[in-house]
Amino acid sequence: MNKKICMVCLLAALLTAGCTPQDPMPDEEDVVNLPDEEQQEEETEDVQKEYDVELSDKLSDFQFSVNETVYTLPARLQAWKNAGWTYEKDNGKKALDPESFLEGEILESEGGSLAVDIVNLDGEKKLLGECYVGGVQLESTEDDSRVYQLPGKIRMGTSTLDEVTEAYGMPTDQYEEKDNIYLTYEYGIYKQADLVFDVQDEILYKAVLKNYREPEDGSEEVSKETPAEVENYQAPGAFPDDIMAFVVRYGGDFYKLPAPVCEFTKNGWKILEDGSDSIVKSGRHGYVTLERDGQTLYAVVNNYADMAVPMENSFIISVHGDFDVTKVSVEMYRGITLGMSEETMKALLGDNAYETEETDRGVSYFIYADEEKQNYTRIFVDKDLKLVREIELSNSPDTLSAASMGTPQEEPDSVEAAAMYGDDEFPGEEKEE
Predict the structure, then answer these.
(1) What is the pLDDT of residues 74-90, one digit of tens each?
(2) Which residue intervals are annotated with compositional bias (Acidic residues) in the record (predicted)?
């Protein structure tokens, strides 16, 4: 009996002989699991998504990057091909008419596809492969691992609304619709950026960039002399009897269209560089953005000289004024002006032939100067108020030999305007407090 007890004690001693006191077991919240292989791959990918690229600080330069590659709009389609993109429609047969574009075209690369706009910025028909990429749509999604960056250190998918407005300033337009906040930055005609944010976290996730403006050629020889066409221009001082003379009093000053840009700057308008071409090639048109007293005029210009000229020596071929966007006083033939009643306007038009075009908002009266209907005056009458709400004049003759001479210099009596711009509200509408 005693022997059995001794044997049991000896066995127990042997089983416990190697044991030493242990540290207490850790609490569950102190336990850290090693990342599995999938998590390690995701973290590695996140590190790889940081791309150090050099971009302009100005959105108006229309630069952006896709991963490590920097692009600028517009750029030749060939430059995109050199960067690894393909365009299925570029088969050497399809062509694009001069100064026209195709929206929503698809470029493909190993990393995925992009929706772009193909633009022919030349003055003659071109094969698609010879055209430009003038627009692009960038969108940060869960399915797209590419990194998109914009000027001013703005990154799609992470930058906030406040960071964007701090980098680019206040937008031309901003509004909220459904689940999105939309910001629009305009830099003249055919030069615009639309940025879209999620309404909940205000994170930028989509950018639609369009710049259909021809890149400037540094090798282009620019005339240093004032062209004869500019020197021969005579500013009118009154409205002639001929409505086809395209004389307008714009912002209180008389012009005969086409009118040199320098005539506008002489009257206090300032050229905004971000929205304007610096030079205009011979026989071609360009774009200018003018600002005065907080109002902006976007205009098309023509160069009638036989050499490239600086913007100041090109000719504005159209002006526009209304009660909504371009709030500049406009007065034309026989004193027809913004705010005038439709009845009075028609009486002043007299026997001049016109065509009408009706929309839900009102009626446009078109007075055409040619059968092709390229040169015209448009007067828009509000449907409900029966008042002139918009006036637009556009005239681009082939030459200026007869268009710029013999304008009247004495100002006759004109019909008193029903409303001119200043601090007054639109007739018939309540002024907002």
Answers:
(1) 999 999 999 999 999 99
(2) 25-45, 422-433
Q: Which pLDDT score, from 0 to 100, does residue 16 have?
A: 43
CB within 8 Å of 330: residues ≥ 6 apart: 248, 249, 250, 319, 320, 321, 337, 338, 391
**Structure tokens given for 113:** 């596809």
Q: Peptide bond before 258: cis, by omega within 30 degrees of 0? A: yes
Neighbours of 106 (CB within 10 A): 13
Q: Is the pLDDT of residue 117 over 90?
A: yes
Strand partners of residue 330? 250
Q: From CA 235, how far away is CA 214, in angstroms rounded?
A: 30
- Name, in order, each residue with C-beta under 8 angstroms of 258's C-beta and a sequence gap of 6 or more: 302, 304, 315, 316, 317, 395, 396, 397, 400, 403, 404
83 by Cβ neighbours in 10 Å (0-12 / 13-18 / 19+) ranks as: middle
How do beta strands 126-127 and 154-155 pair? unpaired
Distance in angstroms (rounded) separating the CA atoms of residues 89 and 112: 17
Q: What are the CA-CA distances from residue 294 to residues 270, 325, 337, 421, 423 (Å)? A: 11, 11, 21, 13, 13
Q: How many residues does the chain have?
A: 433
Yes or no: say if 108 and 116 are a contact pair by the CB < 8 Å rule: no
Q: Which candidate, 311, 292, 310, places its Cα nearest to that of 300? A: 311
133: which residues sit within 8 A by CB, 6+ positions away?
71, 73, 74, 75, 76, 77, 80, 107, 116, 117, 118, 119
Judged by DSSP in three states, 142 sits in coil
Candidate from 12-26, 98-112, 130-144 with smallest mean pLDDT: 12-26
Averaged pLDDT score across all residues of the chain? 85
DSSP 68: T
What pTM does this model have? Answer: 0.76
Count of other CB atoms within 10 angstroms of residue 31:
8
Beta bridge partners of 387: 341
**Residue 150 Cα to chain centre, angstroms:** 15
